[in-house]
UniProtKB/TrEMBL annotation:
It is a peripheral membrane protein. It comes from Chitinasiproducens palmae. This is ATP synthase subunit delta. This protein is part of the stalk that links CF(0) to CF(1). It either transmits conformational changes from CF(0) to CF(1) or is implicated in proton conduction. F(1)F(0) ATP synthase produces ATP from ADP in the presence of a proton or sodium gradient. F-type ATPases consist of two structural domains, F(1) containing the extramembraneous catalytic core and F(0) containing the membrane proton channel, linked together by a central stalk and a peripheral stalk. During catalysis, ATP synthesis in the catalytic domain of F(1) is coupled via a rotary mechanism of the central stalk subunits to proton translocation. GO terms for molecular function: proton-transporting ATP synthase activity, rotational mechanism. Keywords: ATP synthesis, Cell membrane, CF(1), Hydrogen ion transport, Ion transport, Membrane, Transport. NCBIfam families: ATP_synt_delta, PRK05758.2-2.
Length: 177
């Protein structure tokens, strides 16, 4: 996995430097769609079929992206196809989004809660977390009943765990030490 990330990094950085001159969101969406397509077994089979030309594979992928990609994204996909690097697209997409988020001062936040969070409760929690992490957050809420209560928040490589399960584990550790 680390090797895949290392090989994908220059591609993601190159795509980002081109996308900065245009619309980052269009590129991000296009790369995300292409990454989903490349994960399909049919696409993997077609791309390894020697009877299907590299141009046909690129055209197949590009026609599935909506809205239709611009010339730069088309060139990028054609270059990946020509260099037999289609398998990198999911990792390129992830790294591109990380670069985009960094440039916009935004971070993805995975909020795990024992109960569904919606409306005002989610809004006030996100506002408090944005103050704590000092950046704009894009939250994803996952319901995890094993937490018992409270929340566990992951932003990048930082973890804030205020769940009842974590507190019980701390108490157990303190009592058995």
């Amino acid at each position: 996995m680390a090797e895949l990330a290392t090989v994908a990094r220059p591609y993601a950085e190159a795509a980002f430097s081109v996308a900065e001159k245009g619309d980052l969101n269009v590129w991000s969406d296009g790369l995300r769609q292409l990454a989903e397509l490349v994960r399909l077994p049919e696409v993997a089979e077609a791309s390894s079929n020697p009877r299907i030309s590299r141009r046909q594979i690129a055209d197949l992928l590009l026609t599935a992206v909506k809205p239709a990609p611009g010339a730069e994204l088309k060139n990028f996909v054609e270059m990946l196809v020509d260099n037999h690097r289609l398998a990198l697209l999911p990792e390129i997409s992830v790294q591109f989004d990380a670069l985009k988020n960094s440039s916009e001062g935004v971070a993805d936040a995975e909020i795990r809660s024992a109960f569904p969070l919606e409306g005002a409760a989610l809004t006030s929690l996100v506002a408090a977390l944005e103050r704590k992490f000092a950046r704009k957050l894009r939250p994803t809420v996952v319901v995890d009943p094993s937490l018992i209560g409270g929340v566990s928040v992951k932003v990048g490589d930082e973890l804030l765990d205020t769940s009842v399960r974590a507190r019980l584990a701390q108490m157990e550790s303190a009592l058995t030490a």
